[in-house]
Design the sequence.
């Protein structure tokens, strides 16, 4: 039991208690979801009225008499068998004393208290720069905030990292790739005063910058190349959004414009194809094509996901927690949830032509001949008549279900496999667009066998026709397409769904933003354009904070607010609140440039510090929250693969385009539903593309990505986990991609240093893999390993030929195979997969 005398003394000594600062965080800690409510016999802690009403055993507080309140008895352990909070750390004596003092002082609960008092719900104000004693350490404003906190804690920052570490750090952080030996040498030898700034500017201007930061946004956008769920059908055009995203980031599109086009590019006056493609962010929701599903249910789930993702990505709010009831901790009502959902409830999913440069001309030239041949084939096999009869029977099944199991099934398949199937079916061939007719005919050819006998299908020779059509399509020059959203002509009504059930309609609501935040200010029916402008308005307290916090997270391993996905009352408070507000106002008031903010961060002295652990910090700041040193970070999954390919010379650096399928272990694709997932390894340079471009199949994702903590792409992901598992080591040793990279790295070492001795070649291998030469101790160990490997292979030359089957200039098979062992060692070092 808590020391009663201690907290009684504290309570008497406390001045007027601040609800937002002292009480709201304590109450939110005590009320831990439904399990805690059951333990407390129905007691709720989310309003004053609930506390006065209490649970089954009466009021939880007695206003003016804290010592008699059931709440105090519970948190202090006086009530036998009950303790609050039920899990985690107990409340401290000072917290209990504040709670009792608050009750003694009248249990004041301000109107809209949670919204008005919580730090993140108040508009950020630009703070003055703090004064510091060691002024010479400060390179820009960021450093003043960091150093002021360190000085207050009597801690000193770490020395600046050496130049090789700095350029490797910068390269991975800004473009996701390691520097080349030539780039390292240029920086090390550049003694000019602006050498560091020149490297930063070069990397920010690199086309690979967009690839690095696109990966971060694809995590947020839950990007994948397949639908998910049972069928997990491939999305052949999903990559077109990724391509737009890379280009937008490389152009440094201002974040307010980026937000506008992402939210409502299709609604802008004279919208360009690119602006429409931007809305593809919202097309990354899962799609359920299982038989027997309700299309309306899963449309509802998609709309819900879009609204929740926007709230998480731009506002750092867990809006999804208010689907069934008011939010337990944040001032988000169920009505707020559905008002946000209303912005997307009238959005329709469509596919548009989105040609890349050079695609349109050849396509349009070849299209007339292609269409003529295809229509001739369809006529030859009597498809128009067969399809017309098929559609007629489907219309009957739609109008009078339950009469024919076969046709009910066929209609169900059409509805889950073809978007807006009922609309296309009702329109008929004359009312449909050319694309709708093409989709309907393709579906007919694929599924007609479900309503006719095998003998009839064989008699019609439709299998033969499908092969001929496929061959014809293979010769047609490609034209890229893009999945987007666009507004319906007649908006759908949006209702609060009782208990979150899409079938139970409650009050009708209109599109609006959460009531505890600054008002939307839109006249008439609000649109997604209004939402976008509200998100980046000066009054909005969250967007700028949330966005710069995620930037900081990418450069230091954790955000100033560690819970970058949750800025609500259950999230953590910022470690440096003034710095967070300074960064937010700087980002907002200087044009929303993402590259400018990245440059500001990486040019700070805080960023440039060494990452070595210091004994004096082990007890004072073990988590490096105060940043007296840089963070030492395991590279993300894609960057580990990219680093292996880049160091070995295998990386194919093409920017943008379709997803690739590099080699993966046998049997992975077979884990998909009914063996429908097909994985044919990409050939040629495509198999050596960056990890960003690996085809992501939701039900059978690429193993290397998952082993190194890539998100599953089912929900938005604001911060990745970093784990350390045996599977990772096995992956790096045995994965065919990494073994091939080791072979190529060995080939580089021996062919690019043909006349060099063992010592010089070891140095070169380390420079390729680690951006530095080997230390004397490393050189001794690697030399010994090299000699031992060579002795083993000399006794088994057939194994040497398997390890390195191809000839290479500068070495025989035995020599090259020996260097493969050395290369595998370098590519498996902790330092190789770590950003210092």
Sequence:
């Amino acid at each position: 039991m808590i020391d009663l005398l201690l907290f009684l003394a504290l309570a008497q000594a406390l001045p007027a208690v601040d609800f937002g600062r002292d009480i709201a965080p304590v109450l939110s800690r005590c009320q831990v979801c439904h399990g805690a409510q059951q333990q407390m016999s129905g007691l709720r802690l989310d309003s004053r009225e609930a506390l006065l009403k209490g649970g089954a055993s009466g009021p939880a507080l007695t206003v003016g008499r804290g010592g008699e309140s059931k709440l105090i008895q519970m948190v202090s352990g006086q009530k036998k068998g009950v303790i609050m909070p039920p899990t985690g750390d107990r409340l401290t004596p000072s917290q209990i004393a504040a709670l009792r003092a608050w009750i003694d002082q009248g249990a004041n609960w301000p109107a809209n208290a949670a919204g008005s008092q919580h730090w993140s719900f108040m508009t950020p104000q630009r703070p003055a720069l703090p004064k510091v004693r060691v002024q010479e350490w400060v390179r820009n404003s960021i450093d003043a905030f960091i150093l002021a906190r360190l000085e207050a804690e009597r801690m000193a920052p770490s020395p600046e990292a050496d130049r090789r570490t700095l350029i490797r750090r910068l390269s991975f952080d800004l473009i996701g790739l390691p520097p080349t030996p030539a780039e390292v040498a240029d920086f090390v030898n550049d003694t000019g005063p602006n050498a560091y700034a020149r490297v930063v500017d070069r990397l920010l201007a690199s086309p690979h910058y967009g690839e690095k930061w696109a990966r971060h946004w694809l995590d947020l956008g839950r990007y994948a190349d397949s639908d998910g769920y049972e069928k997990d059908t491939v999305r052949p055009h999903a990559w077109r959004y990724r391509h737009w995203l890379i280009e937008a980031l490389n152009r440094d599109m201002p974040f307010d414009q980026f937000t506008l086009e992402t939210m409502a590019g299709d609604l802008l006056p004279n919208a360009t194809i690119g602006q429409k493609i931007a809305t593809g962010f919202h097309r990354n929701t899962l799609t359920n094509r299982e038989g027997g599903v309700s299309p309306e249910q899963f449309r509802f789930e998609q709309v819900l996901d879009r609204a929740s993702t926007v709230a998480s990505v731009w506002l750092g709010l867990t809006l999804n927690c208010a689907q069934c009831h008011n939010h337990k901790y944040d001032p988000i009502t169920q009505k707020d949830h559905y008002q946000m959902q209303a912005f997307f409830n009238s959005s329709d999913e469509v596919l548009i032509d989105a040609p890349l440069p050079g695609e349109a001309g050849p396509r349009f030239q070849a299209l007339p001949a292609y269409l003529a041949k295809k229509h001739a084939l369809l006529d030859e096999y009597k498809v128009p008549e067969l399809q017309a009869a098929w559609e007629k029977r489907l219309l009957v099944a739609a109008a009078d279900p339950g009469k024919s199991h076969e046709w009910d099934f066929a209609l169900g398949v059409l509805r889950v496999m073809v978007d807006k199937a009922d609309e296309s079916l009702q329109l008929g061939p004359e009312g449909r667009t050319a694309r709708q007719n093409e989709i309907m005919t393709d579906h007919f050819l694929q599924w007609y066998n479900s309503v006719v006998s095998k003998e009839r299908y064989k008699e019609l020779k439709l299998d033969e026709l499908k092969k001929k059509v496929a061959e014809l399509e293979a010769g047609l020059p490609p034209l890229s397409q893009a999945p987007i959203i666009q507004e319906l002509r007649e908006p759908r009504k949006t209702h609060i769904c009782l208990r979150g059930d899409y079938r139970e309609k409650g009050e009708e609501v209109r599109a609006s933003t959460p009531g505890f935040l600054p008002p939307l200010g839109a006249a008439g029916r609000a649109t997604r354009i209004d939402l976008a402008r509200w998100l980046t308005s000066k009054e909005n307290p969250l967007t700028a904070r949330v966005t710069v916090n995620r930037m900081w997270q990418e450069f230091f391993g954790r955000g100033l607010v560690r819970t970058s996905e949750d800025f609500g009352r259950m999230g953590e408070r910022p470690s440096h609140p003034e710095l967070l507000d300074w960064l937010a106002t700087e980002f907002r008031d200087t044009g929303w440039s993402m590259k400018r903010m990245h440059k500001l961060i990486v040019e700070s002295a805080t960023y440039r510090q060494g990452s070595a652990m210091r004994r004096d910090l082990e007890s004072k700041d073990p988590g490096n929250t105060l940043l007296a040193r840089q963070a030492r970070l395991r590279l993300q999954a894609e960057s580990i693969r990219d680093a292996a390919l880049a160091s070995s010379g295998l990386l194919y650096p093409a920017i943008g385009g379709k997803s690739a399928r590099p080699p993966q272990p046998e049997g992975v694709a077979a884990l998909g539903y009914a063996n429908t997932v097909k994985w044919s390894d990409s050939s040629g340079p495509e198999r050596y593309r960056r990890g960003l471009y690996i085809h992501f199949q939701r039900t059978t994702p690429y193993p290397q990505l998952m082993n190194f903590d890539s998100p599953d792409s089912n929900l938005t992901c604001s911060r990745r986990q970093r784990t350390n598992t045996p599977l990772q080591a096995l992956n790096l040793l045995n994965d065919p991609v990494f073994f091939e990279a080791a072979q190529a790295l060995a080939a580089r070492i021996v062919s690019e240093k043909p006349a060099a001795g063992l010592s010089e070649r070891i140095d070169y291998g380390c420079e390729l893999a680690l951006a530095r030469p080997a230390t004397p101790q490393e050189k001794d160990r690697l030399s010994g390993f090299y000699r031992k490997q060579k002795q083993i292979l000399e006794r088994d030359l057939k194994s040497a030929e398997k390890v390195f089957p191809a000839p290479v200039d500068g070495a025989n098979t035995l020599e090259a195979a020996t260097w493969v062992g050395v290369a595998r060692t370098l590519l498996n070092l902790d330092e190789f997969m770590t950003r210092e």
In short: The beta strands are 347-353, 481-487, 494-497, 505-509, 633-634, 834-835. The radius of gyration is 31 Å.
